[in-house]
Amino acid sequence: MTSRHQQFDLAIVGAGIVGLAHALAAIRRGLSVVVIDRDAQANGASVRNFGFVTVSGQERGQVWRRAMRSRDIWLELAAPAGIKVIQRGVVVVARRPEARSVVEAFLQTEMGEGCLLLEPDALRRDHPELAGRNFAGGLWSPHDVRVESRQAIPQLATFLAEKHGVEFRRETAVRSIEPPEIETSRGPVFADKVIVCPGDDLATLYPDRIALYGVTRCKLQMMRLADPGFRLPAAVMSDLGLARYSGYAALPEAAALRSRLEVEQRDALDNGVHLIVVQSADGTLVVGDSHHYATTPDPFASGRVDDLILEEFSAVFGGPPPPVLERWTGIYASATGQTMFADAPREGVRLVMITSGTGASTSFAIAEEVVDELFGSTTADARKIA
């Protein structure tokens, strides 16, 4: 029966960053790939984010190493895929002495290699766009990069299709998977093996397997602000991020910072607010974000939550923020104590979910691991961009 149909080595369900990363890992091994997605273009968490490939602050150990590897792949991809790297590095402002202590402790770990402590005078001199007068210092990390996700995701898909022959079946829902046949809303697709990357869809494919990992959803709020008249060479974060990102927050020194924040910024902590500011090529700023958890989050953005984000922006940059040009919410899969999982619901099928909001930062490395496990280990030579 299958001889009359094109048969692929690998079918990938989901064309967000996780699915595209698996397609890349597969084509680097010389595999034929089809990607199936229910939408006409990427519309979920993969494009509703900062485009910030975050290395510094990721959970210590495997997650941090995956972020470093994924960062390297983004940089390898940039020129061949026409993806512009807009910013490099991150400045983490330490507004309080307790935040500086976290920075100093971070610099003593392996994650701090190549990073620098910014003294208050250096912070004021090198980053005059920041308020800076009463800051305790800051962290400079060269490891992070930023792309414009709304452009980079479709550019990556185009690169995979036009340069490497990946076939995309858009506006197509997958109903069942029984390799080598995948039943879809537009007829069968045939592939030897299948990787399912469902994003925050917890109900369509393998819901019982997903439930084993305690997956829920996280809603975030973000904004785009008008060009402030200055240019940020790097992304900017602050004390709230030091208390939230595990690579900082798990350090013993973070306990004192969190205790102070619980007194001074309780509302921000309760709403999962921390500050990331990145700048687009047109000068506008992407600012966020917040975190609210529910199986089905409501679709409404809270004005009060946006205000909390902008209050932190003003504290870091000084003065009122520029006008808000856009507001949006994003939703991603989330699981307590679980940054990702790769499940095997049946032979020849893998279910991959990133449950920590780190898709842009870790997907490429995770995809290499999953494809290697599914098809057998490979060599570094097979991982070069053609």
UniProtKB/TrEMBL annotation:
This is FAD dependent oxidoreductase TIGR03364. The keyword ATP-binding does not apply. Keywords: Flavoprotein, Oxidoreductase. SUPFAM superfamilies: FAD/NAD(P)-binding domain (SSF51905). The keyword Phosphoprotein does not apply. One of its GO terms (cellular component) is cytoplasm. It comes from the Bacteria. The lineage of its organism: Bacteria, Pseudomonadati, Pseudomonadota, Alphaproteobacteria, Hyphomicrobiales.
